[in-house]
Protein backbone atom coordinates (compact mmCIF):
# COMPACT_ATOMS: atom_id res chain seq x y z
CA UNK A 1 0.00 0.00 0.00
CA UNK A 2 1.15 3.46 -0.82
CA UNK A 3 1.21 6.30 1.67
CA UNK A 4 0.70 9.02 -0.89
CA UNK A 5 -2.63 10.79 -0.57
CA UNK A 6 -4.04 13.84 -2.26
CA UNK A 7 -6.07 16.75 -1.03
CA UNK A 8 -9.72 15.69 -0.78
CA UNK A 9 -11.67 17.44 -3.47
CA UNK A 10 -14.09 19.09 -1.04
CA UNK A 11 -11.21 20.49 1.03
CA UNK A 12 -9.60 22.70 -1.59
CA UNK A 13 -9.37 26.36 -0.77
CA UNK A 14 -10.75 28.62 -3.47
CA UNK A 15 -11.58 27.48 -6.97
CA UNK A 16 -10.12 24.39 -8.63
CA UNK A 17 -8.71 26.68 -11.30
CA UNK A 18 -6.55 28.99 -9.22
CA UNK A 19 -5.71 26.96 -6.13
CA UNK A 20 -2.23 25.62 -5.57
CA UNK A 21 -3.69 22.61 -3.76
CA UNK A 22 -3.47 19.39 -5.75
CA UNK A 23 -6.95 17.89 -5.52
CA UNK A 24 -7.39 15.58 -8.52
CA UNK A 25 -10.99 14.75 -9.36
CA UNK A 26 -11.47 11.05 -10.03
CA UNK A 27 -14.63 9.97 -11.85
CA UNK A 28 -17.36 7.65 -10.56
CA UNK A 29 -15.09 4.69 -11.36
CA UNK A 30 -12.26 6.23 -9.36
CA UNK A 31 -10.29 7.06 -12.51
CA UNK A 32 -8.78 10.16 -14.06
CA UNK A 33 -7.76 10.44 -17.74
CA UNK A 34 -4.06 10.93 -18.33
CA UNK A 35 -2.51 12.32 -21.49
CA UNK A 36 1.14 11.42 -22.04
CA UNK A 37 3.18 13.82 -24.15
CA UNK A 38 6.77 13.53 -25.29
CA UNK A 39 9.27 15.75 -23.47
CA UNK A 40 11.48 16.20 -26.51
CA UNK A 41 8.85 16.94 -29.15
CA UNK A 42 5.63 17.78 -27.29
CA UNK A 43 3.90 15.07 -29.35
CA UNK A 44 0.72 13.50 -28.00
CA UNK A 45 1.61 9.87 -27.30
CA UNK A 46 -1.39 8.22 -25.64
CA UNK A 47 -4.40 8.61 -23.40
CA UNK A 48 -4.87 6.19 -20.52
CA UNK A 49 -6.35 6.19 -17.00
CA UNK A 50 -5.01 6.23 -13.46
CA UNK A 51 -6.69 5.50 -10.17
CA UNK A 52 -5.36 7.15 -7.02
CA UNK A 53 -2.92 4.32 -6.43
CA UNK A 54 -1.50 4.49 -9.96
CA UNK A 55 -1.08 8.25 -9.61
CA UNK A 56 0.66 7.79 -6.25
CA UNK A 57 2.99 5.12 -7.63
CA UNK A 58 3.79 7.32 -10.61
CA UNK A 59 4.72 10.19 -8.30
CA UNK A 60 6.70 7.97 -5.93
CA UNK A 61 8.64 6.04 -8.57
CA UNK A 62 9.02 8.59 -11.37
CA UNK A 63 7.75 6.01 -13.84
CA UNK A 64 4.28 5.92 -15.38
CA UNK A 65 1.77 3.56 -13.82
CA UNK A 66 -1.79 3.27 -15.15
CA UNK A 67 -4.99 1.43 -14.36
CA UNK A 68 -5.98 -1.10 -17.01
CA UNK A 69 -9.75 -0.99 -17.40
CA UNK A 70 -9.77 -4.17 -19.50
CA UNK A 71 -7.66 -6.19 -17.08
CA UNK A 72 -8.78 -4.37 -13.91
CA UNK A 73 -5.23 -4.08 -12.64
CA UNK A 74 -2.42 -1.62 -12.14
CA UNK A 75 0.22 -1.75 -14.83
CA UNK A 76 3.61 -0.19 -15.05
CA UNK A 77 3.91 1.14 -18.58
CA UNK A 78 6.51 -0.97 -20.39
CA UNK A 79 6.58 -3.72 -17.76
CA UNK A 80 6.30 -6.37 -20.46
CA UNK A 81 7.35 -4.45 -23.59
CA UNK A 82 10.24 -2.52 -22.08
CA UNK A 83 8.72 0.68 -23.47
CA UNK A 84 8.72 2.55 -20.18
CA UNK A 85 7.88 6.18 -19.52
CA UNK A 86 10.16 8.22 -17.29
CA UNK A 87 8.14 11.09 -15.87
CA UNK A 88 9.70 14.51 -16.34
CA UNK A 89 6.73 16.57 -15.22
CA UNK A 90 3.16 16.05 -14.04
CA UNK A 91 0.55 18.70 -14.76
CA UNK A 92 -3.13 19.02 -14.12
CA UNK A 93 -5.74 21.06 -15.95
CA UNK A 94 -7.97 23.93 -14.92
CA UNK A 95 -10.64 21.85 -13.20
CA UNK A 96 -8.18 19.17 -12.08
CA UNK A 97 -10.05 16.31 -13.73
CA UNK A 98 -7.27 15.41 -16.17
CA UNK A 99 -3.52 14.84 -15.89
CA UNK A 100 -0.71 15.49 -18.34
CA UNK A 101 2.40 13.38 -18.01
CA UNK A 102 5.39 14.83 -19.79
CA UNK A 103 7.64 11.83 -20.33
CA UNK A 104 10.81 10.50 -21.76
CA UNK A 105 9.41 7.60 -23.76
CA UNK A 106 11.57 4.52 -24.26
CA UNK A 107 10.69 2.95 -27.62
CA UNK A 108 7.21 3.35 -29.08
CA UNK A 109 4.38 4.42 -26.76
CA UNK A 110 1.74 2.40 -28.60
CA UNK A 111 1.39 -1.36 -28.24
CA UNK A 112 1.13 -1.50 -32.04
CA UNK A 113 4.81 -0.44 -32.12
CA UNK A 114 4.00 3.07 -33.28
CA UNK A 115 5.41 6.14 -31.61
CA UNK A 116 1.93 7.50 -30.81
CA UNK A 117 -1.42 5.76 -30.38
CA UNK A 118 -3.00 8.47 -32.54
CA UNK A 119 -1.84 7.10 -35.90
CA UNK A 120 -5.12 7.26 -37.86
CA UNK A 121 -6.87 10.24 -39.39
CA UNK A 122 -10.65 10.29 -39.74
CA UNK A 123 -11.56 10.85 -43.38
CA UNK A 124 -15.01 12.00 -44.42
CA UNK A 125 -16.05 11.28 -47.98
CA UNK A 126 -19.54 12.75 -48.17
CA UNK A 127 -20.65 11.13 -44.94
CA UNK A 128 -18.74 7.89 -45.56
CA UNK A 129 -16.07 7.63 -42.89
CA UNK A 130 -12.79 5.81 -42.99
CA UNK A 131 -9.48 5.88 -41.16
CA UNK A 132 -6.23 6.61 -42.93
CA UNK A 133 -3.02 5.50 -41.27
CA UNK A 134 -0.24 8.02 -40.81
CA UNK A 135 3.01 6.43 -41.92
CA UNK A 136 5.32 8.13 -39.46
CA UNK A 137 3.04 8.19 -36.42
CA UNK B 1 -30.81 16.30 -35.70
CA UNK B 2 -27.65 15.32 -37.49
CA UNK B 3 -27.45 12.64 -40.15
CA UNK B 4 -23.88 11.66 -39.42
CA UNK B 5 -23.52 8.19 -37.97
CA UNK B 6 -20.50 6.05 -37.24
CA UNK B 7 -19.76 2.38 -37.69
CA UNK B 8 -21.35 0.44 -34.81
CA UNK B 9 -18.59 -0.86 -32.60
CA UNK B 10 -19.63 -4.49 -32.96
CA UNK B 11 -19.61 -4.22 -36.74
CA UNK B 12 -15.96 -3.41 -37.28
CA UNK B 13 -14.00 -5.84 -39.39
CA UNK B 14 -10.81 -7.06 -37.76
CA UNK B 15 -9.24 -5.47 -34.71
CA UNK B 16 -9.91 -1.92 -33.56
CA UNK B 17 -6.19 -1.26 -33.96
CA UNK B 18 -5.70 -2.04 -37.62
CA UNK B 19 -9.12 -1.49 -39.15
CA UNK B 20 -9.80 1.46 -41.41
CA UNK B 21 -13.41 1.56 -40.18
CA UNK B 22 -14.16 4.48 -37.89
CA UNK B 23 -15.97 2.93 -34.94
CA UNK B 24 -15.50 5.25 -31.96
CA UNK B 25 -16.12 3.65 -28.58
CA UNK B 26 -18.26 5.85 -26.34
CA UNK B 27 -18.27 5.09 -22.62
CA UNK B 28 -21.27 4.12 -20.48
CA UNK B 29 -22.32 7.78 -20.42
CA UNK B 30 -22.16 7.96 -24.21
CA UNK B 31 -19.01 10.09 -24.12
CA UNK B 32 -15.51 9.87 -25.57
CA UNK B 33 -12.53 11.89 -24.29
CA UNK B 34 -11.10 14.35 -26.78
CA UNK B 35 -7.64 15.86 -26.64
CA UNK B 36 -7.19 19.11 -28.53
CA UNK B 37 -3.68 19.90 -29.76
CA UNK B 38 -2.42 22.99 -31.52
CA UNK B 39 -1.74 22.60 -35.23
CA UNK B 40 1.13 25.08 -35.25
CA UNK B 41 3.03 23.91 -32.17
CA UNK B 42 1.70 20.46 -31.29
CA UNK B 43 0.99 21.76 -27.78
CA UNK B 44 -1.62 20.01 -25.66
CA UNK B 45 -4.43 22.53 -25.22
CA UNK B 46 -7.27 20.81 -23.38
CA UNK B 47 -9.15 17.61 -22.67
CA UNK B 48 -12.94 17.57 -23.01
CA UNK B 49 -15.68 15.14 -23.98
CA UNK B 50 -17.94 14.57 -26.97
CA UNK B 51 -21.06 12.53 -27.38
CA UNK B 52 -21.93 11.14 -30.81
CA UNK B 53 -23.83 14.29 -31.73
CA UNK B 54 -20.96 16.60 -30.78
CA UNK B 55 -18.57 14.46 -32.82
CA UNK B 56 -20.95 14.54 -35.78
CA UNK B 57 -21.38 18.31 -35.54
CA UNK B 58 -17.61 18.74 -35.31
CA UNK B 59 -17.12 16.70 -38.47
CA UNK B 60 -19.95 18.42 -40.32
CA UNK B 61 -19.04 22.00 -39.39
CA UNK B 62 -15.24 21.86 -39.09
CA UNK B 63 -15.50 23.56 -35.71
CA UNK B 64 -15.08 21.88 -32.33
CA UNK B 65 -18.26 20.96 -30.49
CA UNK B 66 -18.17 19.27 -27.09
CA UNK B 67 -20.57 17.88 -24.52
CA UNK B 68 -20.59 19.81 -21.27
CA UNK B 69 -20.90 17.34 -18.42
CA UNK B 70 -21.59 20.10 -15.90
CA UNK B 71 -24.30 21.79 -17.95
CA UNK B 72 -25.54 18.62 -19.73
CA UNK B 73 -25.58 20.35 -23.09
CA UNK B 74 -23.75 20.57 -26.38
CA UNK B 75 -21.45 23.53 -26.64
CA UNK B 76 -19.59 24.99 -29.54
CA UNK B 77 -16.13 25.84 -28.27
CA UNK B 78 -15.82 29.62 -28.22
CA UNK B 79 -19.55 30.28 -28.66
CA UNK B 80 -19.48 32.80 -25.82
CA UNK B 81 -15.76 33.63 -25.54
CA UNK B 82 -15.00 33.79 -29.25
CA UNK B 83 -12.11 31.40 -28.69
CA UNK B 84 -13.18 28.91 -31.34
CA UNK B 85 -11.32 25.87 -32.62
CA UNK B 86 -11.10 25.25 -36.35
CA UNK B 87 -10.51 21.56 -36.91
CA UNK B 88 -7.57 20.74 -39.14
CA UNK B 89 -7.50 17.00 -38.52
CA UNK B 90 -9.34 14.42 -36.44
CA UNK B 91 -7.50 11.34 -35.27
CA UNK B 92 -8.40 8.35 -33.16
CA UNK B 93 -6.19 6.09 -31.09
CA UNK B 94 -5.38 2.39 -31.28
CA UNK B 95 -8.49 1.14 -29.53
CA UNK B 96 -10.68 3.98 -30.81
CA UNK B 97 -11.79 5.13 -27.37
CA UNK B 98 -10.16 8.56 -27.58
CA UNK B 99 -10.07 11.35 -30.15
CA UNK B 100 -7.38 13.87 -31.01
CA UNK B 101 -8.48 17.15 -32.54
CA UNK B 102 -5.69 19.02 -34.23
CA UNK B 103 -6.94 22.60 -34.29
CA UNK B 104 -6.26 26.17 -35.16
CA UNK B 105 -7.06 27.79 -31.84
CA UNK B 106 -8.42 31.33 -31.83
CA UNK B 107 -7.24 33.05 -28.64
CA UNK B 108 -6.58 31.03 -25.49
CA UNK B 109 -8.01 27.50 -25.26
CA UNK B 110 -8.57 27.68 -21.50
CA UNK B 111 -11.45 29.58 -19.93
CA UNK B 112 -8.90 31.03 -17.49
CA UNK B 113 -7.45 32.93 -20.49
CA UNK B 114 -4.37 30.73 -20.69
CA UNK B 115 -3.22 29.14 -23.91
CA UNK B 116 -3.49 25.63 -22.45
CA UNK B 117 -5.60 24.22 -19.63
CA UNK B 118 -2.50 22.38 -18.37
CA UNK B 119 -0.85 25.37 -16.68
CA UNK B 120 0.05 23.86 -13.30
CA UNK B 121 2.86 21.46 -12.40
CA UNK B 122 2.44 19.01 -9.54
CA UNK B 123 5.24 19.53 -7.04
CA UNK B 124 6.14 16.90 -4.45
CA UNK B 125 7.98 18.09 -1.38
CA UNK B 126 8.48 14.91 0.61
CA UNK B 127 4.88 13.81 0.21
CA UNK B 128 3.46 17.33 0.52
CA UNK B 129 1.88 18.22 -2.80
CA UNK B 130 1.31 21.58 -4.32
CA UNK B 131 0.66 23.05 -7.75
CA UNK B 132 3.01 25.54 -9.34
CA UNK B 133 1.66 27.73 -12.10
CA UNK B 134 3.55 27.92 -15.37
CA UNK B 135 3.87 31.54 -16.38
CA UNK B 136 3.70 31.07 -20.14
CA UNK B 137 1.15 28.24 -20.29
From TrEMBL, chains A, B:
<dbReference type="GO" id="GO:0005737">
    <property type="term" value="C:cytoplasm"/>
</dbReference>
<protein>
    <recommendedName>
        <fullName>Phosphoribosyl-AMP cyclohydrolase</fullName>
        <ecNumber>3.5.4.19</ecNumber>
    </recommendedName>
</protein>
<feature type="domain" description="Phosphoribosyl-AMP cyclohydrolase">
    <location>
        <begin position="46"/>
        <end position="119"/>
    </location>
</feature>
<dbReference type="GO" id="GO:0008270">
    <property type="term" value="F:zinc ion binding"/>
</dbReference>
<feature type="binding site">
    <location>
        <position position="117"/>
    </location>
    <ligand>
        <name>Zn(2+)</name>
    </ligand>
</feature>
<dbReference type="GO" id="GO:0004636">
    <property type="term" value="F:phosphoribosyl-ATP diphosphatase activity"/>
</dbReference>
<dbReference type="GO" id="GO:0000287">
    <property type="term" value="F:magnesium ion binding"/>
</dbReference>
<comment type="subunit">
    <text>Homodimer.</text>
</comment>
<dbReference type="InterPro" id="IPR026660">
    <property type="entry name" value="PRA-CH"/>
</dbReference>
<keyword id="KW-0479">Metal-binding</keyword>
<feature type="binding site">
    <location>
        <position position="93"/>
    </location>
    <ligand>
        <name>Mg(2+)</name>
    </ligand>
</feature>
<feature type="binding site">
    <location>
        <position position="97"/>
    </location>
    <ligand>
        <name>Mg(2+)</name>
    </ligand>
</feature>
<dbReference type="InterPro" id="IPR038019">
    <property type="entry name" value="PRib_AMP_CycHydrolase_sf"/>
</dbReference>
<comment type="pathway">
    <text>Amino-acid biosynthesis; L-histidine biosynthesis; L-histidine from 5-phospho-alpha-D-ribose 1-diphosphate: step 2/9.</text>
</comment>
<keyword id="KW-0460">Magnesium</keyword>
<dbReference type="InterPro" id="IPR002496">
    <property type="entry name" value="PRib_AMP_CycHydrolase_dom"/>
</dbReference>
<keyword id="KW-0368">Histidine biosynthesis</keyword>
<comment type="similarity">
    <text>In the C-terminal section; belongs to the PRA-PH family.</text>
</comment>
<keyword id="KW-0963">Cytoplasm</keyword>
<comment type="function">
    <text>Catalyzes the hydrolysis of the adenine ring of phosphoribosyl-AMP.</text>
</comment>
<comment type="similarity">
    <text>In the N-terminal section; belongs to the PRA-CH family.</text>
</comment>
<keyword id="KW-0028">Amino-acid biosynthesis</keyword>
<feature type="binding site">
    <location>
        <position position="95"/>
    </location>
    <ligand>
        <name>Mg(2+)</name>
    </ligand>
</feature>
<dbReference type="GO" id="GO:0000105">
    <property type="term" value="P:L-histidine biosynthetic process"/>
</dbReference>
<keyword id="KW-0378">Hydrolase</keyword>
<dbReference type="Pfam" id="PF01502">
    <property type="entry name" value="PRA-CH"/>
</dbReference>
<dbReference type="GO" id="GO:0004635">
    <property type="term" value="F:phosphoribosyl-AMP cyclohydrolase activity"/>
</dbReference>
<keyword id="KW-0862">Zinc</keyword>
<feature type="binding site">
    <location>
        <position position="94"/>
    </location>
    <ligand>
        <name>Zn(2+)</name>
    </ligand>
</feature>
<feature type="binding site">
    <location>
        <position position="110"/>
    </location>
    <ligand>
        <name>Zn(2+)</name>
    </ligand>
</feature>
<comment type="pathway">
    <text>Amino-acid biosynthesis; L-histidine biosynthesis; L-histidine from 5-phospho-alpha-D-ribose 1-diphosphate: step 3/9.</text>
</comment>
Amino acid sequence: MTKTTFTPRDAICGSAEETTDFAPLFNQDGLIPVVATDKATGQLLMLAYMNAEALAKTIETGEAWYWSRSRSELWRKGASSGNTQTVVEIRTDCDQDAIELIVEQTGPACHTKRKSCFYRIVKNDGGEFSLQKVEDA
